[in-house]
Specification:
- By secondary structure, the protein is α+β, with helices and mostly antiparallel strands.
- The protein is built from five helices and 16 strands.
- Strands 4-3-6-7 form a four-stranded antiparallel sheet, with no helix packed on it. A four-stranded antiparallel sheet has the order 13-12-15-16, with no helix packed on it. The protein has a three-stranded antiparallel sheet with strand order 1-2-5, with no helix packed on it.
- The relative contact order is 0.10.
Length: 284
């Protein structure tokens, strides 16, 4: 009988107070799936879920082994992302970030510590992805000249954005993938400059080129950036049928015939009018 009363008391306390505790802890759910998204040192921390009106998020960033700092524009925010590009003042350092779940702006809480989720370690110099570069192409006498533009980064020096070349210096290479147009066989070559000469091409043939940033000093899997859009040179031996589609050629022929017909018609009409005027003058 005593045991029954104890059990009843236990269940009463459990079901009376557990929902309250659950509600209190559930007011600030921990952030999930905290990850980094970074391209050319434009680095954003993202996470889930979208907060309700009952709580918000605050982001703290710290270099590994250093002190944490709260990011002013990511304090008690309803967003699920925080741009940390400018906060990472040393691109060669490694960082971790904490996402804290806190009351919304203007609200208070009795909690001394808030639920938080720590991000994976992120090292911008080694981890940021490299965007596809842009380049110009000129081909002459079997030599292709590619002038690659070093992409700008989100790193500011003075009043200017630094380029990938400014950041990586001699460690920045470019990998060129090229192939004869309408062929499947491809070749690759690596260069440590932005002005690239690809030699040994067959003169008169059309070649296609793609470029991507290449950092050999990085770990495998993070060395290569995105491939650029392909650019192809003109085939000097191409016939008009190879350069233009049959539809374009037929349209051009029809247009020429129409223009010729219009010119002939206008000329004939003008000649007839002049002849008619001449006859009237002769009659008079």
């Amino acid at each position: 009988m005593a045991t029954t009363r104890i059990e009843a008391g236990f269940y009463f306390l459990y079901f009376s107070f557990f929902p309250t505790l659950l509600s209190a802890s559930g007011s600030y759910p921990q952030a999930q799936n905290v990850t980094w998204k970074s391209t050319n040192f434009k680095t954003v921390l993202v996470w889930e879920p979208k907060p309700s009106v009952d709580y918000s998020y605050t982001v703290e960033l710290s270099p590994v082994g250093g002190n944490a700092q709260r990011i002013a524009y990511c304090i008690r925010s309803s967003q699920t992302m925080c741009d940390l590009s400018t906060a990472m003042t040393d691109p060669k350092a490694c960082y971790v970030a904490d996402v804290l779940s806190q009351p919304p702006q203007g609200a208070t809480s009795d909690l001394s510590e808030f639920p938080h989720k720590t991000s994976p370690k992120f090292c911008p110099y080694h981890d940021t992805e490299l965007d596809r570069p842009k380049f110009t192409l000129e081909v002459s006498k079997g030599i292709a000249t590619l002038n690659v533009t070093d992409s700008p980064t989100a790193i500011v020096s003075g009043q200017h954005l630094q380029t990938l070349r400014d950041v990586f210096s001699e460690h920045l290479h470019y990998r060129v993938t090229y192939w004869k147009n309408k062929s499947t066989g491809k070749k690759t070559s690596d260069y440590n400059t932005s002005m690239i000469n690809v030699t040994g091409l067959d003169q008169g043939e059309s070649y296609c080129f793609q470029v991507q940033a290449y950092i050999p000093s990085r770990t495998y899997g993070k060395q290569l950036g995105d491939l650029s859009h392909a650019q192809c040179s003109r085939d000097e031996n191409e016939t008009i049928l190879e350069v233009y589609s049959p539809a374009v050629i037929i349209s051009a022929i029809i247009l020429i015939l129409l223009l010729t017909g219009i010119i002939i018609t206008v000329t004939v009409v003008c000649c007839k009018k002049k002849a008619a005027k001449a006859e009237k003058k002769g009659v008079v």
